[in-house]
Amino acid sequence: MPHVLEPVTIPTPTTGKKTRSQDDRAPAFFVICWNDPVNLMVYVTHVFMKVFGWNRQKAEKHMLEVHEKGRSVLVREGAERAEFYVHQLQGYKLQATMEPAE
Amino acid sequence: MKLLKQNEAGWKYELNQNEGILLRMLVAEFPLTAATAVKIARTGADAKSAERERLLNESLAQHRLEVKKQAGKLLAANLKAGEAGWRLSLSAKEREVLLQLLNDIRVESWHALGEPEDLDTLPPHPSETDLRHHNLMQLAGYFEYTIVEG
Q1: Residue A52 in domain
Q2: Which residues contact A81 (CB under 8 A, 6 or more apart)?
Q3: What is chain A's percent helix, strand, coil content, to nearest 5?
Q4: Which end of chain A has fewer CB atoms < 10 Å from its terminal CB, N or C?
């Protein structure tokens, strides 16, 4: 008769759950780039690729959205990260802001 | 201005005599004006927005000083006279610094012109200052385009 193993209770990984819960409660922000007539389209695409590490296709999609719709939501992040991205984009003189997501 | 070579070490551009002189002139013009204050939010604000905005504008002012310092050094070291013009070598970091400087001149010139929608048309009776800002804006755009697109 094969040996029957006692059931083992695997501890619940509480750490990850707690972190996720905390993130859910933290205020979220949209990082938005607004259209203007002065920033060149190739320049805006270049900046998105540099700041976010996006490929050209994704960067161009957002650049065209800015151009055609007046703005593009680039990312949704917590306050600190959103602020970091706004600083980066404004350093390149793009009109970028962080807006509360809720 | 045209791209000669791009590899892991960076970018090499060739500039004619006039372009080399104009690029030096542009870098020397920076910063063109005091930076226009920027907003950190447009559609909504939370309790920390004012402080974030103050920090953003402080950080950008500091950033401009750093760009000015680095750009002066990089042109002195990397823009060399050649047989028919100039050669400009840029590492990835230097290329970003130069692009940021050029676009700062372009955007601040645009602000100084009253933020027109049509960038190609001058006002009916442009002042000397308008003409200067218009020319700087167009020139900075020319170099930006060439640096990004080769």
Answers
A1: yes
A2: none
A3: 50, 20, 30
A4: N
Looking at the structure of chain A, the number of domains it has is 1
pLDDT at A13: 44
Closest approach of B91 to chain A, Cα-based (Å) = 14
Number of Cβ pairs closer than 8 Å across A and B? 71
**Residue B40 phi, psi (nearest 5):** -95, -15
Note whether A67 contacts B: Cβ–Cβ < 8 A.
no
Range of the domain at B133: 2-149
Interface test with A, best of B107, B134, B137 (most A CBs within 10 A): B107
Q: Token pair for residue A97?
A: 């802001």
Contacts of A97 in chain B (CB under 8 A): 39-42
- Residue A79 forms contact with B (CB below 8 Å): yes
- Is the pLDDT reported for residue B84 higher than 90? no
**pLDDT band at residue B51, thresholds of 50, 70 and 90?**
very high
List the domain range (segments joined by +) for residue A52: 26-100
Q: Which of residues 12-31 of A touch B (CB under 8 A)?
A: 27
CA A98 from centre of chain? 11
**Does A2 score more than 80 pLDDT?**
no
Query: How confident is the model at residue A25, as a pLDDT?
Result: 65
Residue A51 included in any domain: yes
- pLDDT of A16 over the 90 cut: no
